[in-house]
Every structure is written in C-alpha cells, then in structure tokens.
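Reply to dn_fold:

You asked what the input looked like. This is it:
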Amino acid sequence: MGEDIGVLVKKAVDFQARLDRVKAQLGEVGFDWYPYDSLGSFALLDPLLTGERRDLAGLAGDGLVLDVGCGDGHLAFFLESLGCRVRAVDYPATNYNRMRGVRALKQALGSSVEIHEIDADSYFALPDARYSVVFLFGLLYHLKNPYYVMETLARHSRYCFLSTRVARYTPDRRQSLAGLPVAYLVRGDETNQDATNYWIFSETGLRRLFDRTHWQVCEYMAIGNLADSEPSAWQGDERAFCLLERRVVDRVTRARYLAGWHLPEEEGSWRWTERRFALEFPAPPSGRCAELRLEFTLPDRVLDRLGTVTLQAAVNGAVLCTRTYSTAGEHRLQAAVPAELLTREAALVEFALDRALPPGDQDCRELGVVVSRVELE
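and this is what came back:
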C-alpha cells in the first residue's frame, strides 16, 4: 500500500514551496510563469477519494502517468517526486508561456519527465500506448472536441482524474440545465474574456459524455457555486472533480491476454495486435484434442504498405500452421491442436506476423492485425 492521499496533499504543499524557491533562484527568465495554483487541484483529491482509491500509488502501479495540459509542469514534477514515471503534454500556441516555463523547470530540477507538444484540438497520437493514470485538470472546457479527447484517452489509459467547469443554469439564470444532458457553447469573449473556452457541460451532460466515451465514474465532487452556477460570470463558477475508470467490455476472448495486444476498441468488439501476440487458455480435459480459431481483419492500410503478411500460430511452443495473406478484409484461421500438446494446466497460444506497421506520427503503436475473436475449444 502507498501513502494516503491526505499525506500526499501535504507533500504537494512542500513541493510547491520548493518550486517557488527554484523560480526565485532562476531570476529573470524572459517570460511570465503560469499564474494559477496548479497543485491546488491536487489538494482536492483528499475530499474526493474514498476507500482503496485514496492510495494513488495503487492506482498508478508501475505504469506511466500522463499530465495533459501541464502548464508549467508543477503537477508532473510533483508526481515524479513521488516515484511516478511521467509524461507531460501541452501545446505551445495555447500554453501561457509557450511551454518555456515547463522546460525551464525541467532543466532546473534535473527532471526526467518527458515533455511533448500535442494539439489536443486536432487528430493526435499520444507518446505511449498505455498509461495507468491520466490527469486532465481544468482542460475539458478549453477543448473544441471533448468527445474525441475523452474517447482517445479511454483507449490508452485505465484511470483519469478530471476537473472541469460545469453549470446548472443558462447565463441569464432563466433556464435550468439540471437533469439535461447538454453543454453550453460560450462566445469567444463570454467567459473570462478567454476565447479558448468552449463547452461547459451540465452535470448530466458531463456524465453522459463519460458514458458515451467508455468511462465509468468512480468518484464525483462539485465545488464552487452549487446553487445557481452558470457558464459566463466568475460568480457562477462551479467545478466538477472526478475519478474515472475505463469501462471495458471485452468480447474478443475469455482467455488471459499476454504480450502484444492493444486496448479494446468499439465497446470491446475488436483489438489491434502488435507483430507478436499471445494468450493463455485453460487446457481442455486431458487426452482430448482441440481446435484453435482466430478471426481477424487485415486492414487496407496494412496491406497497402506491407504487400503480404504471413501469420504463424503455435501452441505450447509447437508450430501448428503458417499462412500467407495477400488480400485485405476478414480472415479466419483454423488449426487442429493435437492432444499431446495439451498436457499442461494451461495452453500458451502464440501468434507471430512476419511484418507489421511500425509506430508513426498518426499512431504511436505497432500495428499488426485486428482480432475480433480467438478461441481454443
């Protein structure tokens, strides 16, 4: 077990003091630091989290942590100080000082946090395939397409800490938004004279967004104006703080996934693989043979670049078959598995392609085939 979130909040206060000292030592840097309290949002995790979820280290495990909209990187550097491996993401055009602040602090702290420039309002690829936890504090209502961002994050991460502005009324306070799954699109000068503000959701609309983008709400808390919040005036400011967990309904297989699989897509109905991918099935009763079935798709973009693809299937180290495919579309591989290969408690099933698409600018994953079903019966 890691430290309780209340202990970490106290450490965040000390770390903020350290950052203030570092900035003072840097003196004149030629730009303005981000003026808001970035670590203040972290402090609100104390009243938000309950039970086992108060163990942030338990949520993060040994996986990567992603800070989206990192500002000057205060949260990212603090998480690193707790032992997390962190990626920090922002976009110079919308960052307060064009990301000069986060880079200056990284150098001054001798940090290993990786900093990436990503425009979340465009089609984007994340720097890594998987994250245990994503932090999305104060960014959602600054996004033109929050649906796309939340759906993308759900494909690559298990947990998401999120805060955003919400509203209970329209700006004139005449029409209630409570209970309606809606979002209010503000004018460019309507909220804090800030043209980067876009969609401000009702609570019901926010929860609908989470549901439609494959997240379930584990914890939810609202602060600020809880009576008659609205999207424009600062007096009407209400904030929602949430812990979300990716909702996975995996229909590809009941086996245990091993290496080489990407996260499920389209409500768990299919998965991309890497060049090599493997599973572990419970072995059939002793003395019985079985049949291995793999249903998959070779997308046009794979064959257009690779020409042909050869797929090999093996069970418990013994090669069953090798097939070459030269046409795009749906395919089905079937192979008999002799009983003598199924004498162990579990059956290790391994697939290997002779080639796959390497990671690129549009997708940071290695891509092999798209699997819709795999069975050993």
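The first helix runs from residue 5 to 26.
Hope that clears it up.
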